[in-house]
Amino acid sequence: MAEMARVSLSIERPLLDKLERMVRRSRYTNRSEFVRDMIREQIVQQEWEADEEALGTITMIYDHHQRGLSDKLTGLQHDHHKEILVTSHVHLDHHLCAEVVLVRGRASHIRQIADELRKQRGVLHAALAISSTGKTLL
Description:
Blueprint lengths: L12 H14 L4 H19 L3 E11 L5 H11 L4 E8 L4 E11 H12 L4 E10 L6
Antiparallel strand pairs: 1-3, 1-4, 2-3
């Protein structure tokens, strides 16, 4: 674990009150860990904005009865086999499937892959969650 440093900052009382409510609602045990996580979130956001290497999770809900959709999704994933680390497929009911795709690469390329998958007819919902490779979070 990295060496800890103690810092002090000045903050307006109303803003501090909001911070305290956020910490309580989020169920953090202390304000420091909450602030560290807010900083890490900003680092990840900046990595994505700078189009650095990143991780992404694409979650899709789709109707597997849509003609040719499974083949299209598989084909697109094969087109990006270097970036796709793993997929997980779950049958939700007789018609609906959920698929989670873990992707590593440039942020813009991850967005492109998510958009290609999302645009397919029969994909009812697709969401991209952004993350970091962790190299800059330490």
